[in-house]
Amino acid sequence: MTEKKTYTGACLCGAVSVAAVLDKATMGACHCGMCRKWAGGPLMAVECHDAVTWTGEDKIGVYDSSDWAQRGFCKQCGTHLFYRLKDRPFYALPAGLLDDMKNFVFDHQVFIDEKPANYSFANDTDNLTGAEVFAKAGG
Asked: Which of 13, 29, 59, 122 has the fewest CB atoms lying closer than 10 Å?
């Protein structure tokens, strides 16, 4: 049985903070073109399927990046805050947003078929193509 734990963090200027309940202390990389454009490289993120609580919500800007998802950012300092699905509770929070990452394990990569050849991670990870991600998500 996995023990859930709450992790906290904040944007660069501190105007927005988050508390997120995670099932496990793992993180992954998304190599899709949209995440690479948004993050300036692969998006290193933690997945949240439970409670995510924000303070400073009036400082959060939201961009509808697709028909099914949104990306959030701090309107004051520009820090990337989340990628979230519109139809169900799921957030991908940039790993660097959280304060305590020392025990996190890098264990998966998604959209591996879109990863450019100019970088590679040495970690042994589970790797999913874009088609596999969509199939796992149910469409």
From this structure: 122
pLDDT of residue 139: 58
CA 113/CA 69 separation, integer angstroms: 20
Q: What is the spatial distance between Cα 14 and Cα 57, in angstroms, rounded to a whole number?
A: 12
Query: How far is Cα 7 from Cα 93, in angstroms, rounded to an integer?
Result: 11
- DSSP assignment string, 27-38: EEEE--HHHHHH
pLDDT band, residue 134 (cuts 50/70/90): confident
pTM (two decimals):
0.91
* Close Cβ partners of 3 (under 8 Å, ≥ 6 residues apart): none
**Helices (H) then strands (E): counts for the chain:** 2, 11
Interatomic CA distance for residues 108 and 4, integer angstroms: 19
- State pLDDT tens for residues 13-22: 999 999 999 9
Contact 48, 7 (CB under 8 A): no
- Tell whether the model's pLDDT for residue 1 goes beyond 70: no
